[in-house]
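About this split. The held-out portion is used to measure sequence recovery: a designer receives only the structure tokens and must propose an amino acid at every position. Recovery is the fraction of positions where the proposal matches the reference. Here is one held-out target exactly as it appears in the evaluation file.
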């Protein structure tokens, strides 16, 4: 990585790299990430896991979600908060969830208050990212959605924050800001990095 690269430049470069992965590479990555995740005690013992639906070349959590459902682990998905600007809600997600498309053209469950799962009821939050480093720092898409939402993380029952990435998304030293929430673990198809 060039030390002079700004966050915006890094985002553009790393998004292009992950988008250039072929369909078979993406498929293998999604399967390998599921295998890695279920080796983690945080995931194997979880009852409630926040996932995401892949967009923009992010690794697919499809195999992970399927296995979680088989193992009776409940899955939630992020939904754009309708009132609080740039925050996320997490809603229960199952095979029969009614879906809609948000303003970023990403599928999300239709908002329904009984389906909202509070942040602190999760055991694990799986987060997409654009870039990461070995210290667990995370660069997202630039909206600050996860940072804002996770700033309200409860202390008592704090979910494990697991960043999901392709190997090519690692950089040496990510330029971080004081609002950036780091990951406890980063899982790629080949490694599990615990800072
Ligand atoms: N806790 C917070 N409260 C208010 N604003 C915040 C907070 N966290 C981040 N922001 C704002 O969000 C904007 C984007 O932040 P940042 O560049 O870190 O996004 P990101 O980490 O790439 O995105 P995301 O969190 O959606 O993955 C920044 O302008 C920042 O000021
Ligand atoms: Mg951030």
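Reference sequence for scoring:
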């Amino acid at each position: 990585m060039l030390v002079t690269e700004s966050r915006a430049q890094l985002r553009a470069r790393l998004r292009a790299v992950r988008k250039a992965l072929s369909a078979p590479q993406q498929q293998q990555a999604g399967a390998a990430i599921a295998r890695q995740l279920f080796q983690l005690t945080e995931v194997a013992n979880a009852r409630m896991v926040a996932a995401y639906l892949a967009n923009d070349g992010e690794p697919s959590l499809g195999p992970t979600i399927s296995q979680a459902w088989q193992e009776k682990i409940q899955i939630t998905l992020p939904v754009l908060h309708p009132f609080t600007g740039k925050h996320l809600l997490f809603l229960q997600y199952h095979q029969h969830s009614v879906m809609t498309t948000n303003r970023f053209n990403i599928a999300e469950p239709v908002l329904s208050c009984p389906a909202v799962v509070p942040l602190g009821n999760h055991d694990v939050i799986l987060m997409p990212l654009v870039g990461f480093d070995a210290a667990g720092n995370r660069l997202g898409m630039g909206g600050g959605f996860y940072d804002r939402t996770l700033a309200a993380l409860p202390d008592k029952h704090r979910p494990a924050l697991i960043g999901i990435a392709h190997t090519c998304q690692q950089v040496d030293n990510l330029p971080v800001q004081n609002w950036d929430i780091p990951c406890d673990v980063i899982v790629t198809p080949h490694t599990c990095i615990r800072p």
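Annotator remark: The chain has one domain: 7-193.
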